């Protein structure tokens, strides 16, 4: 369902009519530069990451500035991992205030902070935690599709461990990820081919040589995930129910991957999936649990059929397959990456969706519980929680609900399936081993559940 206000904004008519305008978000296109213009890189206190971020920005062929001048900024990175005192926080404000004034459309603010739990003393912990409120407020103030996010890094994290996250948050791949906080710890698991990180093609094909299975890949967000991971170099194993066979075949053909017809709730589903991956593909690197269903009803009218089917597809099947992936002899490779699709409904709750919201909140609980167990195998598990995404599902909503869903976020629009897929690709990278047990919302900083 097209977004009329966005269309009117593009033609300038919305402004003439006095309507709010919807910014056009810059999204990644192969061949486009990762960064569109100069980036301010600054730090407060002892700087752990500014040098590496500067080197990365300059590698992209754009200037890394140390002070705000007349140039329009594409990005602002402030390394606050060494900030300990209120004076340090005030210094951050002094950097950020002129910088946000110069930030251009689809600009990026990225703060890097210390882990509050590791801080020595109340003031340092308070300052580390204050970045959370600061970044979420910046996200709400920025305009024209600009975003603000925070990376919280543990004390033993090296610059290399945040590299894939810095790339993601500064690039157009994170177009609809706003107001988010991701924690980075010392990485688990080594890439299968350590050389791949330095490969000059790495940015266009960061998933080259990786095998990715995507459930629910016949249509919607799952199809976009398959397309995006394939664009980034992964070989796709697309999974969906036999009834969705046509769409599944289309996804497999489009991505040059293979199709596996499988109901993930079948009692032998985990066995069939893992044997298929072991026998036909020499194992798997990335597992995306995307398949999901809704069977909405108010709780007062909820039947056990509706309850059981939603919990079974959205949570039960993921639990079973994850246990199989963790079992001895599983085909999950070293540096394996499991990414689960949760939902904003699982965080904020939603009227008529007790079953769905319970299942999606359950996914978050599962991810947090399994993170240490996947780490023991050198693998990670994380979740993305999409907000309002323009899909067949949201197109069938009543007009008022749909309009409301689109606008109550900082970017004033719905996200696209590719936005969810890009976040999954970030978690899927071999270099993202420092991200484990994380839940990142792809919601344009929705006000719901924030
Ligand atoms: P969709 O209904 O368009 O696609 C879901 C796919 O999963 C379908 O192809 C379906 O056949 C498949 N599937 C369902 N049951 C299955 C089973 N038992 N075994 C294998 N495959 C099965 O949904 P979508 O909008 O693309 O959503 C994808 C995921 O994103 C879901 O987990 C959904 O809950 C989540 N999500 C969507 C939105 C949104 O705005 N659309 C928001 C938040 C979260």
TrEMBL record:
Domain called Ketoreductase: residue spans: 210-392
Q: Does the keyword Oxidoreductase apply?
A: yes
* PANTHER family the record matches: 3-OXOACYL-[ACYL-CARRIER-PROTEIN] REDUCTASE [NADH] (PTHR42760:SF78), SHORT-CHAIN DEHYDROGENASES/REDUCTASES FAMILY MEMBER (PTHR42760)
Q: Which family does it belong to?
A: Belongs to the short-chain dehydrogenases/reductases (SDR) family.
Q: Which UniProt keywords apply?
A: Oxidoreductase
Protein name according to UniProt = 3-oxoacyl-[acyl-carrier protein] reductase
* Enzyme Commission number(s): 1.1.1.100
């Amino acid at each position: 369902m097209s977004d009329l206000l966005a269309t009117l904004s593009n033609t300038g008519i919305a402004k003439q009519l006095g309507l709010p305008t919807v910014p056009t978000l810059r999204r990644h296109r192969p061949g486009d530069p990762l960064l569109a213009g100069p980036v301010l890189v600054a730090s407060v206190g002892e700087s752990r990451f500014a040098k590496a971020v500067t080197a990365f920005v300059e590698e992209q062929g754009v200037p890394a500035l140390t002070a705000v001048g007349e140039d329009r900024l594409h990005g602002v990175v402030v390394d606050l991992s060494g900030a300990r005192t209120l004076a340090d926080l005030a210094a951050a404000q002094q950097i950020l205030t002129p910088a946000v004034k110069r930030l251009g459309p689809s600009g990026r603010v990225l703060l890097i902070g210390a882990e509050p739990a590791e801080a020595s003393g109340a003031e340092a912990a308070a300052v580390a935690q204050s970045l959370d409120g600061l970044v979420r407020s910046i996200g709400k103030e920025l305009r024209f599709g600009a975003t603000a996010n925070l990376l919280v890094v543990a004390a033993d994290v090296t610059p290399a461990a945040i590299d894939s996250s810095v790339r993601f948050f500064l690039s157009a791949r994170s177009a609809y990820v706003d107001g988010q906080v991701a924690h980075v710890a010392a990485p688990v698991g080594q890439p299968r081919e350590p050389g791949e990180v330095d490969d000059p093609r790495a940015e266009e094909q960061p998933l080259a040589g990786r095998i990715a299975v995507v459930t629910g890949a016949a249509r919607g967000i799952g199809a976009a995930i398959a397309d995006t991971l394939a664009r980034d170099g992964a070989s796709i194993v697309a999974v969906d129910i036999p009834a969705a066979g046509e769409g599944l075949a289309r996804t497999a053909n489009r991505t040059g991957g293979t199709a596996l017809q499988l109901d993930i709730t079948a009692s032998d589903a985990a066995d069939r999936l893992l044997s298929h991956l072991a026998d036909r593909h020499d194992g798997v690197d990335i597992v995306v649990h995307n398949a999901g269903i809704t069977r909405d009803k108010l709780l007062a009218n909820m039947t056990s059929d509706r309850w059981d089917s939603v919990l079974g597809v959205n949570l039960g099947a993921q639990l079973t397959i994850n246990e199989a992936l963790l079992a001895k002899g599983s085909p999950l490779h070293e540096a394996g990456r499991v990414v689960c699709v949760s939902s904003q409904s699982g965080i904020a709750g939603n009227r008529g969706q007790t079953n769905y919201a319970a299942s999606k909140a359950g996914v978050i609980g599962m991810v947090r519980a399994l993170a240490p167990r996947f780490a023991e195998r050198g693998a990670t598990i994380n979740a993305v929680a999409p907000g309002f995404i323009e899909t067949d599902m949201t197109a069938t909503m009543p007009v008022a609900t749909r309009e409301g869903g689109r606008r109550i976020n900082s970017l004033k629009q719905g996200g696209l399936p590719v936005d969810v897929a890009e976040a999954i690709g970030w978690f899927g990278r071999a270099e993202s081993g420092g991200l484990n047990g994380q839940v990142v919302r792809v919601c344009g900083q929705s006000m719901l559940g924030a």
